[in-house]
Structures are given as C-alpha cells and as structure tokens.
From TrEMBL:
Active-site residue list: 108 (proton donor)
Annotated positions binding N(1)-(5-phospho-beta-D-ribosyl)glycinamide: 11-13
Source taxon at top rank: Bacteria
Assigned protein family: Belongs to the GART family.
Entry protein name: Phosphoribosylglycinamide formyltransferase
A molecular-function term among this protein's GO annotations: phosphoribosylglycinamide formyltransferase activity
Residues the record lists as binding (6R)-10-formyltetrahydrofolate: 64, 89-92, 106
Biological process according to GO: 'de novo' IMP biosynthetic process
UniProt KW keywords: Purine biosynthesis, Transferase
C-alpha cells in the first residue's frame, strides 16, 4: 500500500515507520512526506531515506482549501492510498477528509478522549493521573477526535518529568504505530482511492 506521512516536527514516528518497512514487519511504501514547516528535522530524515517531499508554507495560501487542493494533487500524482499523520500540527480540512474518507489516521500521546491537543503529556502530568498512554485513531474534522483504532496504557511514575514521560510515550508510539498500520492495511487490502 502506498502511504504518505504528514509531519511537522522531529519525525521520530516517520523514522519508526521507515524502519518497520525496511525490516519487513510493515508492508507498505512511503511515497511522500508532507511537511508544513521548512525547519522541521523530519525533512532531514526524509532526504536521508530518499522519500519524496512536499514542503509548503500555509501562510502563502489564501485558505486551507487552497493548500489542501495542492496537497491532494501531489498525493494523486504519487498514487497515495493512505495518509498517516505523525506529529502534523494542523487540523485536516474538508478537502482531504472527503478525498481520503477513512484513510487518514493519527497518533496521539494520551489515552483519548483525555488530553486532546498539543500538550497532552504535560497535561497528564499536571492532572496527576497515574496512567496515561498512546492512541491511534481515524481523523475527522475535530482535534484528536475520530474513532479509536488502538490504545496502549503506561503507568506514570512519581519521579516522571515531562521529558521522561515523553520518552516513554515515544517508545510505545514507535512500536504501536507501525503495528497498527500493518493491521489496518491488511484489512483494507484491495481498496483503491
Ligand atoms: C508524537 O508524540 C505524536 O503522538 C504527536 O506528535 C509527536 C510527534 O513526534 N502527535 P515525532 O515528530 O514523530 O518525533
């Protein structure tokens, strides 16, 4: 299955997916990296892995509709069937949602529906919950809403800081995301855009 990864940051989940493909545990090919920032480290990773990149600056477009139309064209050009958000810090709009219905997933560093948004790890610590985790879910028009596909819990230690907890969360993400994508793609086999 031809997939595209959307990312805005460091791209450790992009890397985990690439590594899973190389090791043979994930049967997919990453045809495109879509990135909305010019300074994101994921761009370096993608160059190293020879993944084609579509990098854009949302500020240069009049609206979300305009840039998503362009993204859609690039996705079609690369025959992308499935979109994986991996630290993409932007809401997906109607254009992409309509063209890729049930074909966009996201990973989030909490047990949704607790702690949606950009600061999930910090908020879990501040709330004093003793268990948090990772969620993989289908993307809809909301922020970190949409049907849940997979979750994994982890215990918060009294000594955890935002940094140590983020590291534990990432470790789970890097295993859970490739595994979940593989399961989903197996189920969806034969479906074309
Ligand atoms: C991950 O924690 C993911 O759950 C969240 O953004 C972070 C991306 O990290 N949506 P990275 O760029 O893959 O390292």
């Amino acid at each position: 299955t031809k997939i595209a990864i959307f990312a805005s940051g460091s791209g450790s989940n992009y890397q985990a997916i690439m590594d899973a493909i190389k090791s043979g545990s994930l049967e997919a090919s990453v045809e495109l990296l879509v990135c909305d920032r010019e300074d994101a480290f994921v761009l370096e990773r993608a160059k190293r892995e020879h993944t084609p990149i579509f990098q854009f600056d949302p500020k240069r477009y009049d609206s979300k509709f305009d840039y998503e139309k362009e993204i859609t064209n690039v996705l079609y050009k690369h025959q992308v069937e499935f979109i994986v958000l991996a630290g993409y810090m932007r809401l997906i709009g109607d254009t992409l949602l309509q063209k890729f219905t049930n074909r966009i997933i996201n990973i989030h560093p909490s047990l949704l529906p607790s702690f949606p948004g950009k600061h999930a790890v910090r908020q879990a610590l501040q709330a004093g919950v003793k268990v948090t985790g990772v969620t993989v879910h289908f993307v809809d028009e909301g922020m970190d809403t949409g049907p849940i596909i997979a979750q994994e819990a982890l215990k918060i230690d009294i000594l955890d800081t935002e940094q140590t907890l983020a590291e534990k969360v990432h470790k789970i993400e890097h295993r859970l995301y490739p595994e979940t994508i593989q399961l989903l793609l197996q189920k969806n086999e034969g479906v074309t855009p």
